[in-house]
Design a protein that fits this description.
Blueprint (H helix, E strand, L loop, with lengths): L2 E6 L4 H9 L1 H5 L3 E7 L6 H8 L6 E2 L2 H7 L4 E4 L6 H10 L3 E5 L6 H14 L3 E4 L6 H11 L6 E9 L18 H18 L3 E9 L11 E8 L4 E7 L13 E6 L2 E6 L2 E6 L16 E3 L8 H13 L13 H16 L3 E2 H11 L3
Helix pairs in contact: 1-3, 5-6, 6-10, 8-10, 10-11
């Protein structure tokens, strides 16, 4: 079956959806994009050029697009605080949803969305594209192979030189808690996926250096403890002097019983434990072996579109379905509260309390 899609958001990241993520799925016949929406009509050319839409299929108003076209699925690529209003329109028209991360800009809004979707009986996925990048997928599969042994702790780094206004998209420079909402939502998500265990507690320290041209905090140090005892630490920064591991070039290290496994700028190396080389002096890295990256046709959001279509066809539920993806937004909300209170936050307790407090 070919699913009819309305693409919502064609500028900024929406341009990438039009040019890169949707076309392979159009080409294989799984989707047909029937309309596109963006409040800026100048951005409609992205849908016209890359998706071969006619000007008459492009709209500045979401409701008008849904009224004019029969659709099975909508893809949402707009700022997080707009997500809930668009989800409401999709549900009114009984249309399935695939949305850019995060579910919404707050945990409360995210829970409302998840409950509305469940109540309506439609399917909604969230594109946690970093988790399904080629390098992170390979890293995760390798950890789960059992070869490195049990995980002791994980270390992640996402540090950038993007301190000047507009360097990370103008709207982000005016957001509160922007690093957590727009950055850590990916990073903490794939770290938790590597741990493969619910996060029990999180402690976060976030701040805004005087030289950073942002309204919200853009630097963070985060500590996580998972229910199986695994620990993780994450360093995030948008206002450093140099970009060490920017968007898509992540650093992640897994310290395991039998190996140290390191991802750095899309290259994975494993360092097996060698008893005769034990030392506390100098470096012990001569045993490095490269882990070959997995191969397949689609990665990231392109793959997640395919996963969504397979789910709509009756296949396995997307790992990033909206109900399960509440874990991701709960990590961000818990980190926000931890930074505000200077106390660790019990993540599962926070999520359960929020779920119980909201009725639809």
């Amino acid at each position: 079956m070919t699913y009819r899609v309305i693409q919502i958001g064609t500028g900024g990241q929406g341009e990438r959806w039009c040019s890169t993520y949707l076309p392979p799925n159009v080409a294989d016949g799984s989707i047909e994009v029937v309309a596109a929406v963006d409040v800026d009509p100048e951005q409609h050319e992205n849908a016209q050029n890359h998706l071969q839409l006619d000007e008459s299929q492009c709209y500045t108003d979401v409701e008008t697009a849904f009224e004019a076209h029969e659709a099975d699925l909508c893809t949402i690529v707009v700022p997080p605080w707009i997500h809930e209003a668009i989800v409401d329109v999709a549900l009114e028209h009984d249309v399935h949803i695939l949305s850019e991360k995060p579910i919404a800009d707050t945990l409360e809004a995210s829970v409302r969305i998840a409950k509305k979707v469940e109540q309506a009986g439609v399917k909604m996925g969230v594109t946690m594209s970093h988790r399904f990048d080629r390098d992170k997928t390979t890293f995760r599969r390798y950890l789960r192979s059992g070869d490195p042994g049990s995980i002791d702790y994980l270390v992640g780094r996402f540090t950038c030189n993007a301190r000047s206004y507009g360097a990370w998209g103008a709207f982000r420079h005016e957001m509160a808690d922007v690093l957590l909402i727009e950055g850590a939502v990916h990073q903490l998500d794939f770290i938790a996926a590597m741990a493969d265990s619910p996060c029990k507690t999180i402690y976060a320290d976030t701040w805004l250096p005087e030289w950073a041209e942002y309204e919200g905090d853009v630097q963070a140090l985060v500590q996580m403890r998972f229910e199986d005892g695994t620990r993780a630490t994450w360093e995030g920064a948008k206002a450093n002097a140099v970009t060490l591991n920017g968007w898509g070039s992540d650093y992640l290290r897994a310290e395991c019983r039998d190996e140290t496994v390191v991802l750095d700028d899309r290259t994975i190396a494993r360092y097996p434990y060698t008893p005769e080389m034990e030392t506390v002096v100098g470096q012990d890295t001569d045993t490095a072996e490269t882990v070959s990256l997995d191969s397949q046709d689609k990665w990231g959001n392109t793959w997640l579109v395919e996963q969504c279509i397979e789910w709509l066809d009756g296949g396995a539920k997307m790992a990033t379905n909206v109900q399960d993806n509440l874990q991701s937004i709960a990590l961000i909300e818990a980190a926000r509260r931890s930074s505000q209170t200077n106390e660790p936050i019990a993540v599962q307790e926070l999520l359960t309390k929020t779920l119980n407090s909201i009725e639809i």
